[in-house]
Amino acid sequence: MPSDGAEPDKALLLRARDGDREAFSRLARRYAGEATRIALGYLGSEEDARDMVQEAFLRALRHMDHFDAERPFFPWFYRILRNLCFNFMAKRGRHGECPLVCERDGGVDPPGRGADPFRALVASERASLVWEALQTLSPEHREIIVLRHFRDLSYTEIAEALDIPRGTVMSRLFYARSALRRAIDARLGDESGTLAADAEVS
């Protein structure tokens, strides 16, 4: 539920399920930024990310009659977006570009909250190399990094989003961070040891 006094998700969802397009548009605007950051984490291209987000919202709208308004909207929507991104990556068979530019320059950066080492890497002059390293991970590993570090989800929240045990989240995140560290090492050489290790602590 929004904390700014805006209409709660549930009210918008009930109206959208009854065919109110404006209610769904308001819901889409509410989550568009977060959805785009997630898609960007998978695809590495702002243009592709925005295309996938738009398609995901269209699909969600077409299937609103199947949505349980008693449940939160975003986890359900996330699964639609996730599947679209995975299918897109499989069809293209390529890695995304490196569009990490500041929001003030019109781009979409992962949100910064606190001193997360991964975001500190992304914000540094090594952003391109780190981003390229992220794009080399398997979809499964990239997903867990995106959910943990782009959405700031807790282990429990990730477990709910992916419908897997919390222990599996911890294990998968460990291996994903290890894979990311190896990819960073391969690109930055000896100086990457400390930097890449930092990405494993949070």
Blueprint of the fold:
Layout: H1 9-17, H2 21-43, H3 46-62, H4 73-92, H5 117-123, H6 127-135, H7 139-150, H8 155-162, H9 166-188, H10 192-198
Explain what this protein looks like in three dimensions:
With 202 residues, the protein is mainly α. The chain has two domains: 1-93, Rna Polymerase Sigma Factor, Chain: A (Orthogonal Bundle), CATH 1.10.1740; 114-202, Orthogonal Bundle (Arc Repressor Mutant, subunit A). It contains ten helices and no strands. The chain has helices spanning 9-17, 21-43, 46-62, 73-92, 117-123, 127-135, 139-150, 155-162, 166-188, 192-198. α2 packs across α4 (73-92) and α8 (155-162) crosses α9 (166-188). The longest helix has 23 residues, at 21-43. Mean pLDDT is 76; it is low at 94-115 and 192-202.
Low-confidence stretches: 94-115, 192-202
User: Which structural class is indicated by helix and strand composition?
Assistant: mainly alpha
Beta-strand residue fraction: under 5%
Main sheet attributes: strand count, strand direction, barrel closure: none
The pLDDT mean sits at 76
Q: In percent, how helical is the residue content?
A: 55-70%
Top keywords for this entry?
202 residues, Arc Repressor Mutant, subunit A, 2 domains, 10 helices, globular
